[in-house]
Design a protein that fits this description.
This protein is an alpha+beta fold and 175 residues long. It has seven helices and seven strands; from the N terminus they run βαββαβαααβαβαβ. The longest helix is centred in the middle third of the chain and has 12 residues.
């Protein structure tokens, strides 16, 4: 199955730089073997700047562009865990500690998942040779996309099916 999810730019950067290996969600929305395309939609620009600085990079060196589907990954292992176990498993692989520090990252995770959540292993990350911008999506599919929460191939909407078909055949560069 294929999915498109919205993701903060800072986490997209970490995935495509090989520094984020787990995506955390409240619900089991992905299965092993699914392909997830990442729409770079949101995020605090100051958090992005601070993270890039930690990496020794400038904003001009980003691999992703806000308002575009930049690439994606294949889902590996799917892990359901309570808060404490999920934190221990992902604190160094989800980007939370790197971006926010250990205490703030732990607080964020607790407020997001409450008692339990899911970690999805990121495998075979890839960038599109040419990202698909929201302007191009409007032109091709007649829909205005400010941010994508979650689209999947389970949909009956023709424009979503056409979008996913387009994404599947795009030229990619595996990281």
């Amino acid at each position: 199955m294929e999915h498109v999810i919205g993701l903060h730019q800072v986490y997209g950067e970490l995935i495509f730089r090989g520094l984020k290996f787990h995506e955390i969600r409240k619900a089991p929305i992905f299965r092993e073997g699914d392909v997830v395309f990442l729409y770079i939609a949101r995020g605090n620009p100051d958090v992005l700047k601070r993270t890039l600085k930690k990496l020794g990079l400038s904003e001009e060196q980003t691999l992703t562009q806000r308002g575009s589907i930049a690439g994606g990954f294949e889902v590996g292992e799917v892990i359901k865990a309570d808060f404490e176990n999920l934190w221990e498993l992902t604190k160094d692989t989800s980007g939370l500690t790197f971006v926010y520090g250990e205490e703030a990252g732990k607080r964020w995770l607790k407020s997001y998942i409450k008692d339990h959540g899911y970690a999805f292993t990121i495998e075979k990350p890839f960038l599109f040779q040419e990202p698909l911008t929201r302007e191009k999506m409007k032109e091709l599919y007649g829909t205005h996309v400010d941010g994508i929460i979650h689209l999947s191939s389970r949909t009956r909407q023709p424009w979503v099916r056409a979008l996913l078909e387009d994404l599947i055949v795009r030229d990619v560069c595996f990281i």
